[in-house]
Structures are given as structure tokens and as C-alpha cells.
Design goal:
Negatively regulates transcription of bacterial ribonucleotide reductase nrd genes and operons by binding to NrdR-boxes. The protein is built from 5 helices and 6 strands. A 3-stranded antiparallel beta sheet has the order 1-2-3, with no helix packed on it. Helix 3 packs antiparallel against helix 4.
């Protein structure tokens, strides 16, 4: 790690702490050359493989913006969307893979979104599960009704 003050090529770790969310580590460092102290944040990388083959870093903001469209006109707050994006990221990280396809990421969003708002879930599912007809919507709605009936028993 280069020192941000004198650009010396090395630094010494003084202290390490896990962040509040447990997904990153904050390290306090000191430069052996100038004595300057600075902090770094380290996270495990998680990349998304787009349909075009391009690989880019996972972004909670992109998850939120995609889900926001499905939630348009629904009683869903920005805080709800932030919690959903965090849950999706945690679920994807638990798979142990450092890369995920965009389609798999879309599918990982479905369950938390279903819990949040069923109408938004149907809107989002119609894109990521490639609904082709009314029968696709009907079967998805029938599954939601069956799940409600099972939960109320």
C-alpha cells in the first residue's frame, strides 16, 4: 500500500477492525518513511458477469435502481430498498463464489422482493423469468396464493 503522503511503497498495519456490517476490514496503517498514518478499507471482491461478457464490480446501487423500477407506485421506501440490496449481497456472498451472472443476480433478488412487495415481485419476475404469456403470470399468482394459504394454516 503506497503512503498517500510521501508515496513510499510500503506501510505497516497498526490496527485492524471488522466494520459494523462485517463485510469489510478497516486497517490503520503507518508509513515507515514519513510516519504518516492513514486508514484503508478492505473488502472481498464480488463481480457481476453481464450478458455481453463484461465483468464489473457488484453494486448495491444497481440492485436498488433495478428494483426501484419494479416498486414504482408501491408503498416501498428507500430504506426498504437498501435493506433488500444488503440482503441480496449477503446471499450472493454466502454462495462462496466471487462472480455471479446477471441472470443469477436477478433470480437472487426475487425472494427478498417477494417478501417486501408481491406486486413488485411479479413485475420483476416477469422480466427475469421471461414471462411470455398470461399463463406465466397466472401460475406465478397461483403460487403466491398457495403460499398464502399454507402460511395461514
Amino acid at each position: 500500500m503506497h503512503c498517500p503522503f510521501c508515496r513510499h511503497a510500503d506501510s505497516r498495519v497498526i490496527d485492524s477492525r471488522t466494520s459494523d456490517d462485517g463485510l469489510s476490514i478497516r486497517r490503520r496503517r503507518q508509513c515507515p518513511e514519513c510516519g504518516g498514518r492513514f486508514s484503508t478499507m478492505e473488502t472481498a471482491s464480488l463481480n457481476v458477469i453481464k450478458r455481453s461478457g463484461v465483468i464489473e464490480p457488484f453494486s448495491r446501487e444497481k440492485v436498488i435502481s433495478g428494483v426501484r423500477k419494479a416498486c414504482q407506485g408501491r408503498p416501498v421506501t428507500e430504506a426498504d430498498l437498501a435493506v433488500l440490496a444488503q440482503a441480496v449481497e449477503e446471499a450472493v456472498r454466502q454462495t462462496g463464489s466471487s462472480q455471479i451472472d446477471t441472470n443469477d443476480l436477478g433470480l437472487a433478488i426475487l425472494e427478498p422482493l417477494r417478501t417486501l412487495d408481491e406486486v413488485a415481485y411479479l413485475r420483476f419476475a416477469s422480466v427475469y423469468q421471461a414471462f411470455d404469456s398470461l399463463e406465466d403470470f397466472e401460475s406465478s399468482i397461483a403460487q403466491l396464493r398457495a403460499d398464502h394459504a399454507a402460511a395461514s394454516e
